[in-house]
Structure formats: structure tokens, C-alpha cells
Predict the structure of PIH1 N-terminal domain-containing protein.
Amino acid sequence: MLTDYVEELQDPKNKKLYEDEITQLEKERGVDVTFIHPKPGYVIKTSVNGNKKAFINICANDHIKKPTSSPTIKEGTKDTLHLAEKNKAFRTMVNTTALEAVETSFDVKLDKKNLRFPKLSYKGLAHA
């Protein structure tokens, strides 16, 4: 039964129905809900506490605010993933921010000296 439930949840039609139902229920409670669907960017591979593999997905979404420092417009866009792709220093800043956020949020220590960047745009399943 659990397998059937997981397969049912992975069906795009059922995901949309689930999100619509949650949005409606929260709206009845006076809460405005927006589901954030990640747009894959790239993956950082590191280790947690020196003994477990860790993958950090660097993603984007139009609902997330753009960088607020004085962004440079290149090729008509100022999206974080685009800038990280074009500017090594900016990418390093994005990576450092992501690593620090994971450490703070999950109370773990990541290996920042031995980072790897597999040729993946996303690791695992994207969840809203």
C-alpha cells in the first residue's frame, strides 16, 4: 500500500490536485500558500560530519527574490543561477551561503575543503 501511495503522489496530476486542495484549505484559514517548485541549477557534493555523503541542490524559483546587492545585468537577465554560471566569485559566494545555511539549519558540520561538483543539475526528486 505504501508503494501505491508513493506512486500516486508522484503522478503530476495528483501533485497538482494535492497542492490545490492544500491551497484551498489554508485559504479558508486565512493563510495564503504558494508552492515553490525548484528549477534545477547545479549540485554540490560534500560530506557531513566527516562520515556521510551530502548533496546540496542549488536551485532557483521566480517566487524567490533576486539578489539585492547591485546586480549586473548580463544578457538581459539578473538571475542568481545565471550569474553563478558566468562569474566564479559570485558562484563561490552562492556556494558558501548554501553550505552555511545547511550547517545552521541542520546543526551539522560540512567539509568545505573537499567540495565536488558532479555533472548534475539536481540530485534526487524535486519537491515543492
The longest strand covers residues 39-48.
